[in-house]
Amino acid sequence: MWYPYLALLPTESEMAELHPLMWPQGLSEEWLSGSPMLLKLQQRFLNCREDYEALVAAGGNFLFPPEKSIDAIVTEISTRWAASILLSRAFSLDLTNELDDDEFSEHSTVLVPWADMLNHSSLCGKESCLVYDSIKKLACLHASKDYLEGEQVFDSYGPNLSPSDLLLDYGFVDQENNNHRVDLPASCLGPVTGSANDDLLRSIGLPPDGAIFSITEDGVDETALAWTRAAVASIKELASVGWTEGKHSQEKINTRGNMSMACFLKPVSHENESEVMRRLLSACGNVLTQYQTTLDEDHAMVDNEVDKVKVSWAQAQAKLAIISEKKALRGAWKQFYVKLKKLENGGNFRRSSQIKRTN
Ligand SMILES: C[S@@+](CC[C@H](N)C(=O)[O-])C[C@H]1O[C@@H](n2cnc3c(N)ncnc32)[C@H](O)[C@@H]1O
User: Fold this and answer.
1) Where are the transmembrane segments (predicted)?
2) Does residue 306's CB lie within 6 angstroms of at least one atom of ligand 1?
3) Domains of the chain
4) Interface predicted TM-score (ipTM)
């Protein structure tokens, strides 16, 4: 029954151009050099190697009797092919029945053969994401506009995907996508002030060595700001939000941590806020200097020819994602710079308590 569908899936050699997990590792290092995307991709390569070793250890290559003389089907490359097929085709659907009151909404990763034949367009909004109708027991899709007969129909793989997300999961970037965003490990912000700050961030499950924050052209969201304020706060500032090192019992530590973090959603002091802006500014600046190519070189690669050498389609996609990351970092850098200058000139700083008093 599934043969016609399976026969249409891209083969291993076709996927080599289509998905970063199928690029030779040397090429991914060259094409994504300096980009935080490279670390994510390298982690995926490692996960695939572990999956491959586990599949072989589980006897994956003894599925066919030896007399059939079929080559080993589980290889490192076939495991990466399977992972790239899943990454680029799976949907995240809420399969719970909304009539069952006691069931929580929970998204499952599922394959929906044929629905996954549609290409993505960032011009399609949330309405064109596939959803599961638990009453009709059907996966449903809505068109984002009227289509003419014979016109290609697109869906949306997710309204908030950035060009880097699209590249890493699906291997392409559509030029209509303006969700410029780069995800950085919190370690880019430099060390936390001391062990009390470290404990606070660990208590809420966002440790300095594990948290990730997103940078867009507008800067960072309020959670990332709160995290950075907490990371650079002095002992006195931590005490002012109710966090004293070693004072909180194991059972209450998470509740206390969340309450203290909520106070960092607003600036706590002029000094703290200035340090936050300095850290964010230098994180953006440092990442920008890591890229191996200039924006002009990136654009030349997207335009498909450098020194009369044709650039591959996959390399052009990598450059589109890198251009998008640079847009996010440059935009954010400007925002942090303006805020820091304002703070240095003594303006525009209000503690939350001062705001209340003025009101
Ligand atoms: C779920 S499949 C979509 C259908 C695809 N044409 C196929 O059947 O193989 C996702 C893959 O389609 C390709 N794709 C989807 N939308 C695209 C777009 N707007 N531009 C270029 N390639 C796209 C990418 O290779 C992506 O990994």
Assistant:
1) none
2) no
3) 3-89 (no CATH), 91-170 (no CATH), 181-358 (3.90.1420.10)
4) 0.98
